[in-house]
Description:
Elements lengths: L1 H9 L2 H19 L2 H12 L3 H4 L1 H17 L2 H4 L2 H17 L7 H29 L3 H31 L6 H19 L15 H7 L3 H27 L8 H5 L1 H19 L5 H18 L4 H15 L2 H11 L6 H29 L4 H25 L3 H16 L2
Amino acid sequence: MKNQEVQTADYNQKNIKWLTYLMFMMFAMTTDAVGVIIPEVMKEFNLSMTAAGLLHYGPMTAIALAGIFLGFLADKIGRKKTIIIGLALFAVNSYLFLLGNTFGFFLVLLIISGAAIGVFKTGALALIGDMSKSTNDHTSTMNVVEGFFGVGAIIGPFLVSYFLTRNVDWKWLYVVAATLCVVLIIIAFFAKYPDTKKSTEEPINIKRTLLMVKDKYALGFSLAAFLYVAVEAAIYVWMPTLIAGYDGSFTFIALYALPIFFILRAGGRFLGAWMLERFDWTVVMAISSFVILLCYGFSFLNESATVVLLPLSGLFMSVIYPTINSKGISCFPKSSHGSVAGIILFFTAAGAAIGPLSMGVVSDLFGSDAKYGFMLATFFAVILFVGFLLNMIFKPTLTRISKLNESEYSNLNSL
């Protein structure tokens, strides 16, 4: 016990937290800038929307597969090695963007970057549990981490847009990200990490991860992540198409609808970190998902309602995903955090790929009208709200999280 307390007290938590924050910001700069990059690639290589969309679906698929098949690495070889391996692969791969100039080359690099993100992200998610003092602290920290992700989602598209106005190729975004990644590798290498010991003799491998998918808590939170991301992705993938040509009273909002959404989502996550330290998370999730549903539902009233309510939904979306992630991971002992983080990440990336794709298919069935795709997204929002309403009423995770809070975090609370 004393040895564990010394190890816990010994690591530099400040460096570890900033490492985690900056990792999420860095990879969001690239993943969330794809929407700005796709039109440039379409013009450069004369591609269809379906073909250019591979720049989004490809890396999302790679993140999903890396999450489910490599998430166990954080539990098997440790958080530090997993993070450094993922960051190193991402950095080298990002610098390679300067060496080629074909669509196939870029697509392969983006798929590799997705796999790298899947590796270091699961390591980082597991690390959050190691440095948290309680399950509530875990949820609060996760919201701050995702807040930095939201900041990166603003910086990335801005940098690409700025580069293009200066006649600088969009590929330099990846050079910026790679250089930041090198700094993160140096921080990760010298940082002192908390020690997480195996609590089971069960082999830590892919088979163990796949068996965990059957656990009702892992599956439940993973499906919630899938539904939420499908709802969220509707905004940043299809909202610009939906409101294109708007000339009503809120033209300014329409012009900056996507940045407004990202800013509200990022700011809301920092606010969410404060809220979740003070209020019951099940109530916060039920209320937030209900307001999202209202934003989507009333957006069909007229074009002005669409322009105002869809970006506004970002404020209420902000708290949902980090809390799903945190509570899902908190339903398992720390020695399994990497694996369960990988499972949730798989469903997250699947939602990011399948959600917009299914919306596009539905829209095309009705004359390529994006409104019908948003009807499907609204249906996803209904299911999400019903799930969180039942969660608030029955609190199925209360006993399990309470027991793990006592067994996994009690030693940290005593320091």
